[in-house]
Amino acid sequence: MPKPKVLISDKLSPRAVEIFKERGVDVDLRPGLKPEELAAMIGDYDGLAIRSATKVTKDVLKAAKKLKVVGRAGIGVDNVDVPAATENGVVVMNTPFGNSITTAEHAIAMMFALARQIPAAHASTHAGKWEKSRFMGVELTGKTLGVIGCGNIGSIVAERGLGLKMKVIAYDPFLSPERAQKLGVEKVELDELLRRADVITLHTPLTDATRNIINAGALAKCKKGVRVVNCARGGLVDEAALKAALDSGQAAGAALDVFPVEPAKENPLFGMENVVCTPHLGASTTEAQENVALQVAEQMSDFLLTGAIVNAVNTPSLSAEDAARLRPYMRLAEFLGSYCGQLADESLTEIAVEYEGEAASLNTTPLTAIILTSILRAQLDSVNMVNAAALAKTRNIAVSETRRDRNPDYHTLVRARMTCAGGVYVAAGSLFGADRPRIVALGDFKVEAEPAAHILYLRNQDKPGLIGRLGTLLGENGINIANFNLGRSAPGGQALALVTVDQPIPGALLEKIGALENVLKARLMRFGL
Questions:
Q1: Active-site residue identified among 51, 72, 227, 280
Q2: How many CB atoms lie within 10 A of CB 62?
Q3: Domains in the chain, start-ordered, CATH in brackets?
Q4: What is the pLDDT of residues 180-205, one digit of tens each?
Q5: Is 106 a known active-site residue?
Q6: Catalytic annotation present for 126
Q7: For this structure, is 280 an active site residue?
Q8: CA proximity to 315, closest of 498, 85, 486, 487
Q9: Catalytic residue, candidates 262, 290, 401, 450
Q10: What is the pTM of this model?
Q11: Is 435:417 a contact under the CB 8 Å cutoff?
């Protein structure tokens, strides 16, 4: 089996290259590629490792026929078209913890520089002036620090603020009261934070909800003389509104490490003495760059070699331990989904997945994704675990998942229920032993069948003689029966057979089987096992 191949298109620590090679991944280091150069060569790679310079656009992803994963050494994925990656089935990972301390420390440093006017005082002193009375600062002790976004970085900033004897208030819709109490911060709504904070620091992703969260209206609600620190994302602050607030004195100062357009060569805030600017240095320490490079190499290697998914922004995480534990269930999920998918039609409206017994205690999100993928693959070519849920949503297919602690007959059971114009199709399966997947029920029929490449699905009236006629017909055409699994609703009612065969059944022969007396439906089912 060929080794996975990764392209590194931005500058990363040399240790990242070593990790890829040590783990058994081929790697090419090509920083500074132009967009057209990247698009021309990306088709040869399974993985792409980047920092902030490379732009992973829709065009790049369209050319990336083999690409499975994009790894961002850092937190922000603004330079990756995540919806397009999801649509193309590409996992997008980041490294949210590797530079958290570094970025938080930079925000604190910017806050101090702003409070004590250090950059302007530095420039004045270097110019031979001694303007001691000109640079009157403010203490941070006792001031109220308003933290917008209290996740990995924001929580560290909050802890540092408390260490400076500041009063810390936080706005974050995802911050639980318990977590706020543990951090020692007061959770407030945004308007209250704006009204009370002496210093506002931003630590939230750039989304439609957070874009220009600090705008003219927000600044008007602030205390006169508020100071704004942004080391998160350009675009969180409306720069024109901030300039107007600085000019009017409503804001006393601002410290910015990020800008809507980078590299920022021109900006309306440049040249203002009460604005401190740095060129996106939040993650720029030796320790942070080493950490994120090592993390992205480890995460991408794990995914390409074991299927483990860590810190993905567009698909559920799956640890290496989970991947090992779920492996037999993944085969079962693919078997059940593929069975349903081969019976589905274009009017598929609902997919329900049920987990009972031991299966209910697992990380079932990847299993549901596999079932969705296997069902939709019969209708769509480019579906995988990453984009299956999104594709189902675009096709108005309702997806649900339920769990039950016990099953009366099996220690573990997975059931896929599919609704479409042709009816409701149900397939249930279990594991025999620790790792042998079996179908144990199809609709109302109890039947036992193990995965195989070619299975003849047969629905018929339960009348004598059919099995003999079928065996004769297959034998006359050189088709060997490997296994024969039967189930029936009641004696003399309907019966179902799953006949495992060693060779694919030609279409003409399948028609003859379908024409046998008492046969209601005959279909050859193929499984990619």
A1: 280
A2: 14
A3: 5-97+287-306 (3.40.50.720), 100-277 (3.40.50.720), 319-451 (3.30.1330.90), 453-523 (3.30.70.260)
A4: 999 999 999 999 999 999 999 999 98
A5: no
A6: no
A7: yes
A8: 85
A9: 262
A10: 0.62
A11: no
